[in-house]
Every structure is written in structure tokens, then in C-alpha cells.
């Protein structure tokens, strides 16, 4: 019996190629933009962003969508989502200012950052925003001081296994602590409003939603026993997009979540929320870069591109593996992709299968619509990617 040998490099490269071709097949208007004179540049699809928002609303009709502005805060993205009626999740005065400038009313804004600067709380409350997440008694004290009678929702800790960008160690509390925090908020004159959790950004594990909703239901029941009438359940973010592998679809996640809600909440919460960021914009962007150098270092092949982890690809440091496509034929080798800066940490990816590139080639980075330009800085004097909407 002859064993079939899988060419891992070929599989990975062909996946990136298919993703690249699929992206363009739905966006023929992008074709004239593929070889820009100036790089790096991030091309964003506003129509695709609209479609993704509508898809979420279609599959989760009972759930209010609050776009997480931190994923991509470009004014054009905020504008189109505002026109569709989206809500917004903000964490800072600057994010809130951008949202309000688009004519969004404060009742369409929430803040799910469990630890907020005091000046932001004061600014948000003065503008009419009165829904804030908490996960500590200290945060309750802050809100009671400058945002009296605001509505608070407590963040539970849930597993983040299967998420490329885990969040569970920084925020969240267990059920009993959450219950004590809600009671304390009531004693301080605030309104115990609801519960939230986060399954982790880029989550491809159904189990995280299962545990999150089940744990929220447990807290909900215990709160009721103590006379706390909660109104809102916030499902957080976590909807994944395709990078170097297929991701769970919005439809499949929505189907699963609807079933869990029916199972664990016989009486549905008065308000259901979800706050996707990456799930709306992540795969609606493609970054175009150019190869600026090439070297052989020990046993490794290196190429260098005109952006990097400090100038737009910071998530590469935390576990996100982008798909890269180079429009060349030839034998595939594994390449380490170095960023443009002088910093030794500026390594965008390793073991990327590519045909041998040459200086000046265009390298396409797929699913670059989220957490790229918002992280970017002019470190080492190099520019952040220009954002263009073809």
C-alpha cells in the first residue's frame, strides 16, 4: 500500500491563492488597484461590510448589533454602519467622539471595557451614554462617583480555548463574584442591568459560547433569587474570519447560539446584544505590500516587506497568522517575512510557503481589515498603510 504524501506547503499556498481569487471574484472593481505606486495600502470593501452587518441581523434578528469600534475606527466604516442602524461599542473618548460625529444617538452606544479612564466615564455620561461594563468593585465606585444612575453589566470569565486571541486572563469574574458586584452596584445607586462575556477574539470553538451562555444563565437565575431583575445579555464578540484556515460561519454560530438561548433562557432577556468587530470588517480588507529585501540567514529564507508589526500588523505578535499571496509560479519554499523597521521583534510571519520572490514584487495580505491600521504607528519613521475604499 502506497501512502499518499500531503504537500503541506502546496496546500497552504493554494489555500491562500484560492482566498485571494475568491476575494477578487466578488470585487472586480478592486482589480485596477492591485499594483499601486505607493505601498503599503489597505483596501477596504464598504459594500462587503454592509453585507456582513445585514447577514448578522438576518441570522440573529432578536440581537442588537454593537460594532466594536476598536477593530477599525475609520470614519467611513462608522458612517456606513451608522446609516444601517448599527449600535457601537466604544472604550475611549476619541472612539465615542467619532461615533457621535456621525449623528449616532447615545442610546445606540455602550462601553464594554471593564476598566475605564475616569475622564472617559465623565465624558460619556455627559453625552448621554449610560451603559457600562464592570468586573470589579473599584469600577463600581468610579461609576457611582461620576455616572450616577448609570446601568452596569458585569463581565463573566469564560474559557477562550480555540480562540486565536484569548482574552480571559485580563478581564472577567466568576458567578459568585459577579453576583456580589451587581448587588454592590445596586447599593451604590447604580442600576444592575445585565451580563456579558467574551469567548475570545477569532473564536472557532462552539464550546466557548456554550459555557458563556450557560454561565450567564446561572448568574441570571441567582440574581433573580436576590431580587436583581436583570434586563440584558451581551454575547460579546469573537465571530471569526478566514485567515490560513476556514472559519465558522455567521450562520452556523447564530444557529448554535439561538439554540443555546432557548435551552438556558426559557424566558428570554428583554434585550440581547452582540458586539462584533473582526467579524464585520476582518475579511473585508486586503493589504498590498512590496518586497524590499531578500536574504538567506542560516537555514532560513528571509524576505522583507515595506510594513511590519509596528506599522499595521501587530496581531502577528499575538498569534494571528495571515494568509499571504504572491503572484508568481515556481517551486515553493518556506520564508520568514520580516518587517520594515530595524527592530528584531519586527517579524510578521514564519514558515510561509511562497514561490521565490524578487525585490519589488507585490505581496498580498488577506483578511487585513481588522486590528491593523488601528494598531499602527509611524515607528522608525515608516508610514502606516493608507486606507482606500475602491
From TrEMBL:
The keyword Cell membrane does not apply. Residues 48-281 form the Orn/DAP/Arg decarboxylase 2 N-terminal domain. The active site is at 342 (proton donor). GO terms for cellular component: cytoplasm. Keywords: Lyase, Pyridoxal phosphate. Its EC number is 4.1.1.17. GO terms for molecular function: ornithine decarboxylase activity. PROSITE patterns: ODR_DC_2_1, ODR_DC_2_2. CDD domains: PLPDE_III_ODC. This is ornithine decarboxylase.
Amino acid at each position: 500500500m502506497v501512502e499518499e504524501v500531503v504537500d503541506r506547503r502546496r496546500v497552504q499556498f493554494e489555500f491562500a491563492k484560492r482566498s485571494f481569487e475568491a476575494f477578487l471574484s466578488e470585487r472586480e472593481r478592486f482589480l485596477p488597484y492591485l499594483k499601486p505606486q505607493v505601498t503599503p495600502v489597505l483596501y477596504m470593501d464598504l459594500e462587503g461590510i454592509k453585507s456582513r452587518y445585514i447577514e448578522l441581523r438576518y441570522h440573529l434578528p432578536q440581537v442588537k448589533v454593537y460594532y466594536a469600534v476598536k477593530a477599525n475606527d475609520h470614519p467611513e466604516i462608522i458612517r456606513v454602519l451608522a446609516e444601517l442602524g448599527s449600535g457601537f461599542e466604544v472604550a475611549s473618548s476619541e472612539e465615542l467622539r467619532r461615533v457621535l460625529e456621525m449623528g449616532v444617538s447615545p442610546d445606540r452606544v455602550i462601553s464594554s471595557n471593564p476598566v475605564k479612564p475616569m475622564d472617559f466615564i465623565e465624558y460619556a455620561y455627559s453625552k448621554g451614554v449610560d451603559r457600562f461594563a464592570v468586573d470589579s468593585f473599584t469600577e463600581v465606585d468610579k461609576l457611582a462617583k461620576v455616572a450616577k444612575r448609570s446601568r452596569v453589566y458585569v463581565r463573566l470569565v469564560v474559557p477562550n480555548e480555540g480562540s486565536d486571541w484569548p482574552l480571559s486572563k485580563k478581564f472577567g469574574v466568576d458567578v459568585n463574584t459577579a453576583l456580589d458586584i451587581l448587588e454592590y452596584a445596586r447599593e451604590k445607586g447604580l442600576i444592575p442591568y445585565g451580563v456579558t462575556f467574551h469567548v475570545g477574539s477569532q473564536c472557532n470553538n462552539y464550546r466557548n459560547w456554550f459555557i458563556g451562555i450557560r454561565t450567564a444563565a446561572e448568574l441570571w437565575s441567582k440574581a433573580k433569587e436576590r431580587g436583581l431583575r436583570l434586563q440584558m445579555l451581551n454575547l460579546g464578540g469573537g465571530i471569526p474570519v478566514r485567515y490560513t484556515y476556514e472559519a465558522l460561519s455567521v450562520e452556523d454560530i447564530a444557529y448554535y447560539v439561538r439554540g443555546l438561548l432557548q435551552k438556558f433562557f426559557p424566558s428570554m432577556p428583554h434585550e440581547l446584544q452582540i458586539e462584533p468587530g473582526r467579524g464585520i470588517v476582518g475579511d473585508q480588507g486586503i493589504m498590498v505590500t512590496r518586497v524590499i529585501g531578500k536574504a538567506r540567514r542560516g537555514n532560513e529564507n528571509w524576505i522583507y516587506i515595506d510594513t511590519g508589526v509596528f506599522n499595521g500588523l501587530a496581531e502577528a505578535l499575538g498569534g494571528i497568522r495571515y494568509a499571504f499571496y504572491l503572484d508568481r509560479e515556481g517551486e515553493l519554499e518556506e520564508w520568514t517575512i520580516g518587517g520594515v523597521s530595524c527592530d528584531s521583534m519586527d517579524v510578521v510571519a514564519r514558515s510561509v510557503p511562497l514561490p521565490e520572490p524578487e525585490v519589488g514584487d507585490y505581496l498580498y495580505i488577506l483578511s487585513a481589515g481588522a486590528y491593523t491600521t488601528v494598531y499602527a504607528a509611524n515607528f522608525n519613521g515608516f508610514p502606516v498603510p493608507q486606507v482606500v475604499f475602491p
